[in-house]
User: What shape does this take?
Amino acid sequence: EYNITRPKGYTVSYHFNADMEPHHFGLTHPMKPFRLTLTKSLVTAYGMNFAMDNYNTRIATYEELNSFHTSDYLDYLHMAPPEEMPRDIDNPDKEVKFNLGGSDCPLFHGLYDYCSMSAGSSLDAARKICNKQSDIAIAWGGGLHHAKKSEASGFCYINDIVLAILQLLRCYPRVLYIDIDVHHGDGVEEAFYSTDRVLTCSFHKYAPEVFFPGTGGLDDNGPRSEHNPGAHHAINVPLNDGITDEQYAHLFQSIIGKINEKFRPSVIALQCGADSLAGDRLGRFNLQVQGHGACAKFCKTFGIPMIMFGGGGYTPRNVARAWAYETSVAIEIDEKINKIIPEHTPWRKHFVHEELFPSLEQILGDPRVNRNSQKRLQEIIQHVHEQLRFVNA
Ligand code: ZL4
Ligand code: CA
Ligand code: ZN
Assistant: This one.
């Protein structure tokens, strides 16, 4: 119908594991793994699968997870009884220590498998990029940027992004990590604090007392200890509620454009958290599918290999629209379907959990008041450009 063919001159790969879907954080928990299936079905409905190499991804091994996470954390993650089971009286404080259990990072049935699948997808994507078998690798099941080496945080248990970047560092000199999730990409930033081979840049809502995780201020650029090569290689773009497509595109292009000039990355890792869209259950921004997708589109113009990860995104039908649109950007058919995907309505036949969507009228939620002045945004750009004087490839 849309005559979808493979892009000329480069390869796009799509890494998916259907077994992630049945995992439940709990009925009312905002994180809904079935948004991945929703995305996949929309991608397939448009025939985009014919333009890509499609991989059913494997489960990451313990050793692979261990390349970033500590054994004591992994062992506990592996054996921790699900929430509804009696607690292990021998390990009363392990759950506190690892931040497991409770409302953000519940211990649900099959948790370890779920985490290994997410990490497996991202690692497969990284390997295809390393092998030069793919130029743009898509892993919507990954993007869990808050996880620390021995701690779960903000719905994230295993940091698949860190694992994937460690893999990329084996074959490429410099990795640029970009994070457009509405939350600060603290786990990835911290993991690469002490190296100048990874530059991290997160755009996020910033309000330390009230918005998670509270880090990522404009002056947070990595520890400036004396001989730390990683100093100045963490860039943060703190924003207020209601930022629009136009403002975001301007910020993104002037900051990422400058980083590309100075840092000269060999590969890009782009976290595409969809909670920065308007109408997100947890988010605060006003981005439309096109504005969110413009980030991937701009990164693509650099002509270097790229991994696109998922991340947050708590209004599932909008998550699917955004990630399907970004898939179309990767294979360069977005011009053809630009209007269609963001407003796609014949959803019901693809919905597995139809009963959860009583109303389909509203596509993106009511706009929020925009609290980002042009003046402040210009100051942020200025500050980041100054910071980048210390960065040289
Ligand atoms: C929920 O409704 O700000 C969890 C979490 C569970 C079900 C019923 C329990 C009700 C919103 C969030 C009690 C919920 C209390 N249920 C949650 C400081 C907090 C302590 C926990 O996109 N309460 C913690 C984490 C953030 C906090 C955001 C983003 C991940 C990512 C990448 C992680 N945590 C206050 C909140 C609900 C829930 C409703 C929730 N949790 C919203 N924001 C948080 O960056 C994937
Ligand atoms: Ca972010
Ligand atoms: Zn988020």
